[in-house]
Design goal:
Layout (H helix, E strand, L loop, with lengths): L1 E6 L2 H27 L12 H28 L2 H4 L2 E7 L4 E7 L1
Antiparallel strand pairs: 1-3, 2-3
Length: 103
Amino acid sequence: MKEIKIQIPENVVNDIQLKDFEAVSMQMVITNMLEAHALDDDTRIIDSPVFKGYQNRLAQVHKEFEQAKNNMLSSYVDKEIHQNTFNWNLDYNSCTLTLIVKE
């Protein structure tokens, strides 16, 4: 295994971090809505426009988050590394992408 560190531009990291935080926040709202109505006999909350709106927005934000991560990997990780199996971690504070490449 080999460890590789890559500095990612701050604006790219900030965009990914924002999408990550938005997805987590949306998920928390949905979870709280479900927990608040968990004991209700009436399950209309699941079909309500508000709940559906949050669900749809979460799906969109999650898609944008995944696309941003994939774009970063495509833009900053060498193509030869993509031929290997690797795990990665993006440190939002240092803007450092750490790859663990299994050769």
